[in-house]
């Protein structure tokens, strides 16, 4: 029995080490870039039916930014050339091929295949694995440059794991959309928060506060990320962390947390708020009379 348990522990550790060190290119990158292409394409629908045909370079540039946004931000934060990633010819060519197939393939065959629920779900799972790799590398990069700069280390992980959330406002502006309220500093999304929590855990392990092998910690976060992403995709939940955070926010920051989005609606004004605004207007009208 003890031998079986020991063997199982070895297998788990080996799998954890594999997940931490496996080459993410091309399989995981294919999933990530494909979803980035979908995001940019879907977000461009309100710009006109011919936007993709009339502005191919703009769409390509925005797709590249969405695919490697974390690298752009990390280069800016750590003083490296902002366009340093563009020297990776193989990666840029890879992104360009996927961009073209998803946006301009005859009869939209590739787009329709990627948008299928099973394919999309598989891509989302693979993307979460890649996102955690980005977070881990961001933490490692920041810790190497600023060993005791704990806030910088956390920021390094967050921007690598959720770069698009922070540059989305600029990427949309390139496409002619200006929505200043849609950024992850003002409206913090699940992807920003999960990147933050993972970065904190990696930092605690780096500081030896968490006496856990980094491989096992990495595997645990991968499982958590994949589970939460499945809840988002299959359950239609915008932020699966919100039910846990709401009571804490209410306790720490007061009743203002009541107005937070429940996670299943997006931009819906609460009925009570509308009634309150209506009553306020009536009172103002009476005063004017």
From TrEMBL:
Q: What does the UniProt entry say about where the protein is found?
A: Endomembrane system
Presence of keyword Cytoplasm: no
* Protein keywords: Ion channel, Ion transport, Membrane, Potassium, Potassium channel, Potassium transport, Transmembrane, Transmembrane helix, Transport
Please indicate if the UniProt record lists Membrane as a keyword. Answer: yes
Question: What Gene Ontology molecular-function terms does this entry list?
Answer: identical protein binding; potassium channel activity
Cellular component, GO annotation:
endomembrane system; membrane
Domain of life from the UniProt record: Eukaryota
Look up and give the membrane topology term.
Answer: Multi-pass membrane protein
Supply the Pfam families for this chain: TRIC
Instruction: Report the transmembrane regions from the record.
Output: 24-41, 57-79, 91-111, 145-167, 216-237
The Swiss-Prot or TrEMBL record describes its family as follows: Belongs to the TMEM38 family.
Q: What is this protein called?
A: Trimeric intracellular cation channel type B
């Amino acid at each position: 029995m003890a031998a079986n348990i020991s063997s199982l522990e070895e297998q788990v550790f080996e799998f954890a080490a594999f997940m931490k060190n496996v080459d993410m290119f091309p399989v995981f990158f294919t999933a990530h870039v494909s979803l980035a292409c979908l995001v940019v394409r879907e977000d461009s629908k309100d710009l006109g039916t011919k936007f993709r045909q009339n502005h191919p370079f703009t769409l390509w540039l925005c797709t590249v930014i969405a695919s490697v946004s974390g690298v752009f931000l990390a280069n800016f934060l750590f003083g490296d050339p902002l366009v340093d990633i563009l020297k990776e010819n193989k990666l840029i060519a890879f992104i360009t091929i996927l961009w073209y197939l998803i946006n301009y393939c005859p009869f939209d065959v590739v787009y329709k295949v990627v948008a299928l629920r099973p394919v999309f779900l598989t891509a989302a799972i693979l993307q979460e694995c890649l996102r955690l790799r980005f977070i881990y590398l961001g933490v490692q990069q920041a810790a190497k440059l600023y060993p005791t700069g704990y806030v910088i280390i956390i920021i390094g992980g967050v921007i690598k794991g959720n770069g698009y959330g922070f540059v989305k406002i600029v990427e949309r502006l390139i496409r002619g959309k200006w929505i200043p309220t849609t950024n992850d500093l003002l409206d913090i999304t699940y992807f920003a928060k999960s990147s933050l929590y993972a970065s904190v855990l990696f930092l605690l392990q780096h500081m030896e506060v968490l006496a856990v092998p980094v491989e096992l910690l990495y595997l645990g976060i991968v499982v958590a990320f994949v589970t939460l992403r499945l809840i988002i995709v299959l359950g239609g939940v915008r932020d699966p962390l919100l039910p846990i955070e709401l009571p804490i926010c209410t306790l720490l920051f007061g009743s203002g947390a009541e107005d937070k989005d429940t996670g299943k609606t997006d931009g819906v004004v609460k009925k009570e708020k509308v009634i309150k605004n209506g009553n306020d207007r009536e009172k103002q009208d009476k005063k004017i009379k």
